[in-house]
User: What shape does this take?
Amino acid sequence: MSSLTANHSLKRVMPARQANHHSYILPRELWQYEENALYKYIARWSYLRQEYICCDDVAANFGISVRQATNILSMIHRRYSNVFSCRVKRIKAGKGNVVKTHLLVTEIKQTVRKKMRKDVECKSRSQPDLQFKQLRDAFLSCKPLNQRRADA
Assistant: This one.
């Protein structure tokens, strides 16, 4: 019984954030970090290990499917290349023409999200914006040429 609790204390299961997502296991190296997405944990894990990782490594350590791990690795180096600097290796593995992508995160860039303030934008209209608005209103309020001739 004690060995069962000892094994359970080595794992930290993170709950799913959406109904169509699954929970995952967080490796011990990442317990001190507070990320809000699985792909960020995986990128940080690669950065901390300083070695190439593939979908099989991610699936085994995070308790997710190989397909999901493959999609996340692809997402890290394609969609989030502005946040993570990566090196990518493609290696033939196993029988046939199976090519696996191996990823090494070399840098995690800190990005700051800026919230736009709508109230400031509306109050500070520039002169060309006002001129455009006046021109648009004048154009829309004019009667078409054929209606003017019918009225006369």
Observations:
- Residues 95 and 101 are 16 Å apart (CA to CA).
- Confidence is low (pLDDT under 50) at residues 1-8.
- The two ends are 99 Å apart (CA to CA).
